[in-house]
Amino acid sequence: MVAYANPTSTNLYFSNLPSIECSKTNPELLKFWRCKEIVEQGDSPVYDVQICCNHQEPDKVVLYNFAGLGSEVGIPAYVEGNYIVIIPTVISGYEISGSGYIEGNYSTILWEYNLKIGAESESVTAIFVVNNILTNQIESEMVYP
User: Fold this and answer.
1) What are the Cα distances from residue 21, in Å, to 26, 54, 123, 129, 132?
2) pTM to 2 decimal places
3) Range of the domain at 58
4) What is the radius of gyration, based on Cα positions, of the chain?
5) What tens digit of pLDDT does each residue of 43-82 get?
6) Which element (helix H / strand E) includes 141?
7) Which of 16, 34, 79, 131 is 20–30 Å from 109 (CA)?
């Protein structure tokens, strides 16, 4: 079972996806992360992102709610060494590309990514930290076969 966090509320969404191990991904990466975007002016957006195994391609991952695009929106990526690299894609009208650097102990990911919609383009810097509260809550509610 997989749970998704809604970035605008405390509601969680559950989906019965098949349980499958990512063959080349450290399990420490597959959890909920609290994202804080770094902005020059105003409040920095904060929301939750879930990194899951890509069930069609177990050597890749899917980032749900990446860039605050919604818990039902999955962005494909792969892990190479200490980097998560977004597979350039167009989702919900946004062209998305970029990468994140995974800190050695898998507690922080430093992101640089680009969002482009039409002629408008935005470069984003963000920090992901492990959201242990949400990850532990979901794990305690899961039923394993």
Assistant:
1) 10, 9, 32, 22, 20
2) 0.76
3) 2-141
4) 15
5) 889 999 999 998 888 789 999 999 999 999 999 999 999 9
6) helix 132-141
7) 16
